Amino acid sequence: MSQNLSILIATNDPSLISKFDSDKIPITATQPTDLTTRNDIAMTLTLYNFTTSLPATSHPSFTIPASALPAFISALYMPTLHIWTIQSTLSISLPGTEGREAGESTLSCPLLHPLTHAPLAPTFFALLPSTLSTLHHRYTGAYPAAAHLAKLQSLQLGAVEAAQTGSFAQAADRYAMALRFAHVVWECHLESVRGLVGVLWALTLEIYADRTQVLLNIANAAAGDKGGFELARENAEEGVVWLDAREGVGDGVIGGGKEREGVRRGKAKLSFRAAVACQGAGDKGAAVGYLREAIRLEPESRDVLQKRIEEVGGGEGETGGRAAVVWRR
After folding, report:
1. What InterPro entries does this protein's entry cite (predicted)?
2. pTM, two decimal places
3. Residue 271 lies in a domain
């Protein structure tokens, strides 16, 4: 990477900048106007501090010269940072490709992948093998599965507490942070949680369903805001697609008996809430499609769901909207 380029650091934690030694890692810009107008940004590193006291959304915070990247990456294992901050996203922008289609000019992936797994790490980040080994041990090998699940449940609890007090916007944001962390665990720590991956899958499903309900509450409170219902639908559909792609990971991701029964009902709940979102947004056809999917998943509720279909009226595809996103299993 050219040493004349800059690295943009984005974060949801305003205090992150204070955790780095400016003598070792020069900070070249911190003002929002400077950060948004620079044309020398070659890479963006987004670092999240996963805690309910911070928002789920990150913002540009500061820039460092590309020459300082090895020192910056090496500093990520110092005592002032910890596992909940290192969970990050790496986005590499190629200079001179501004006019290309999205995907041609950027490469996004969890930061832990190139740091601890990808063969290009020593060359790309110019890190010593000993540093890579330290990072790998600290952030992927030193935490048991229970620690990752406990952290996810802690973030979920923060969202539940906000929802119980009627702070739905705050709850939606906290659920978003919980989902972001769940995604990182899936992408970077799957080996660590392999024995409890079914629990992780079911917990992620529950969080998607609960965030959808919170978004429905927000839409209803805003006098039936159609845009709000669309956001709820998008969240539900993201959950179906994302979880569907991971249900088959390994052998027996979802166990038998009560666990599988709970998952079946959880899927039906998410599909039902997607139906409510579609109805609120005015897409009756998709609403009916999701209700039929809920009946397939939870046939014991057929009478109640069939009555809901009759109340919605219309048939699948009637409104010309997007089709319902159904579970593959």
Report:
1. TPR-like_helical_dom_sf
2. 0.84
3. yes
